[in-house]
Amino acid sequence: MLLTEIRPEAYDVEIDLRYATPDNLTGRIIYRRAACYLHPEAAAALRKTAAAARAIGLRLRILDAFRPIEAQWRFWEALPDPRYVADPRGGSNHNAGVAVDLTLQDPDGRVLDMGTGFDEIDERSHHASPDIPAEAQRNRVLLAGLMAVTGWESYAFEWWHYQLPGAAAYPRLSDSALNPGML
User: Fold this and answer.
1) Could you please report the per-residue DSSP string of 141-179?
2) CB atoms within 10 A of CB 155
3) Cα 144 versus chain centre, distance
4) Residue ranges of the binding site for Zn(2+)
5) Is-contact 66 5, C-beta < 8 A?
6) Which residues are annotated as a binding site?
7) For 39-58, b where at least 16 C-beta lie within 10 A, e where not — what string?
């Protein structure tokens, strides 16, 4: 299989796949089956990130990972803005399993304040936004630092999105890459 399943107990992460709920930019359920997958290289990097977070008393909360190309079309239909949703004709790095959307939580499971919510389509969601409280800015820098030192690159328009370097070179995959699929 081209993808590795990310299980909470195996990676010491919390999984909260928002596209398996209506709490996302489309306002509807996209993933019929809530399962988290990454390319094996991304899974290895995620394991390092989870260990780095754990070392400072935090835990990763995964909001999205592999996204079948069919789901990309649903996002594009809901929001055809290439700053926030990759055009499905070229695909998203999520479609290759080499991108992850995530945040940090404390030991009690409380999500750290990042200044905006996940999938909040607003300039305040940009990494460099000065229009969020200082604590949220620090939390974003903390997340960005953890991700950078464990092999990830950020995306300027979304504080929650990280991808492997060279992500565009990985093949885009459909739901048929999984058995059973997510959609």
Assistant:
1) HHHHHHHHHTT-EEETTEEEEEE-TTGGGSPP--GGGSS
2) 18
3) 13
4) 94, 101, 161
5) no
6) 94, 101, 161
7) beebbebbbebbebbeeeeb
Mention the CATH class of domain 4-177.
alpha beta
pLDDT exceeds cutoff 90 at 31: yes
Query: Largest alpha-carbon pair distance within the chain?
Result: 44
Domain locations in the chain as residue ranges: 4-177
pTM of the predicted protein model: 0.96
User: Hey, what are 147's tokens?
Assistant: 């991700």
pLDDT of 75 above 60: yes
Q: Say which amino acid occupies 164.
A: L
**Cα–chain-centroid distance for residue 175?**
18
Q: Which of the residues are catalytic?
A: 158
d(CA 46, CA 151): 9
Q: In the numeric block, which tokens belong to residue 132?
A: 């969020």
The stretches of the chain forming alpha helices (DSSP H) are 8-11, 40-55, 69-78, 134-149
Instruction: Classify strands 4-5 and 153-155 as parallel, antiparallel or unpaired.
Output: unpaired
State the pLDDT confidence band at 119, using cuts at 50, 70 and 90: very high
Cβ atoms of residues 4 and 38 within 8 Å: yes
DSSP, collapsed to helix, strand or coil, labels residue 61 as: strand
